[in-house]
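Translate structure to sequence.
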């Protein structure tokens, strides 16, 4: 069928099942079927939560021996898997596959609700929360809910007032690393977010988003007092101050 050769007859027989798509070994717990018996045995361990394969270096345990072997490479610092495009090396072959998607722009994990694709399954799971509006992580100090644990952790720093990230150029402190990264772009004059229409660059992605409406004739943001419309919310807020000033002057004259 494919011409692949094997040293042992048993290995050939197991390989042959990949062509026939026969899956005779069925899990009694979830009914998932497997072509080979040892794959079923490995799968059953996920139900029992047994992890008999233990790393001798750090004590971490795994359900299957192949996972332990992959993990052991981390301690050995072996990176045998090389990206043919950029030369970056990886310990695990699955890490290389995931990295390769950055070059090919392959996004196999697609949201069923909006069609947006993602490189990683974890990114799709996080994105899905934006549709369900589920916010399971609650701040114990102010009760503000968050969809992801990472966002909650960042938020907690605003309560503690901790600023562990310092700029090496001007010593300014920041609560989050992303804020420090943005700040460093100012020193380096880096503007990675570029408008495709006029070519203007911006330090922050949000600044680019605020800039884009300037190219459009749409004015979706209207003043709720006089009905005058604007391209962005910031302009509406600035405009409403005029009405606020009129009301204050009227109350003073009366």
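Result:
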């Amino acid at each position: 069928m494919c011409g692949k050769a094997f040293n042992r007859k048993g290995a050939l027989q197991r390989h042959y099942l990949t062509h026939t798509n026969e899956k005779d070994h069925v899990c009694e717990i979830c009914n998932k079927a497997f072509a080979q018996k040892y794959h079923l045995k490995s799968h059953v361990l996920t139900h029992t939560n047994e992890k008999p394969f233990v790393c001798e270096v750090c004590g971490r345990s795994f359900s299957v021996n192949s996972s332990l072997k992959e993990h052991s490479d981390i301690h050995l610092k072996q990176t045998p898997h090389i990206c043919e495009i950029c030369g970056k090396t990886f310990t695990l072959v699955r890490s290389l596959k995931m990295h390769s998607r950055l070059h090919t722009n392959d996004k196999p994990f697609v949201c069923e609700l909006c069609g947006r694709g993602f490189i990683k399954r974890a990114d799709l799971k996080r994105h899905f929360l934006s549709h369900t509006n589920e916010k399971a992580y609650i701040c114990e100090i102010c009760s503000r809910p968050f969809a992801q644990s990472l966002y909650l952790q960042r938020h907690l720093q605003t309560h503690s007032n901790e600023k562990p990230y310092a700029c090496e150029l001007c010593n300014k402190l920041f609560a989050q690393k992303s804020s420090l990264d943005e700040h460093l772009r100012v020193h380096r004059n880096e503007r990675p977010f570029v408008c495709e229409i006029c070519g203007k660059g911006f330090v922050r992605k949000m600044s680019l988003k605020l800039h884009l409406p300037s190219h459009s004739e749409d004015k979706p943001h209207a003043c709720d007092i006089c009905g005058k419309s604007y391209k962005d919310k910031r302009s509406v807020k600035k405009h409403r101050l005029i009405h606020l000033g009129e009301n204050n002057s009227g109350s003073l004259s009366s």
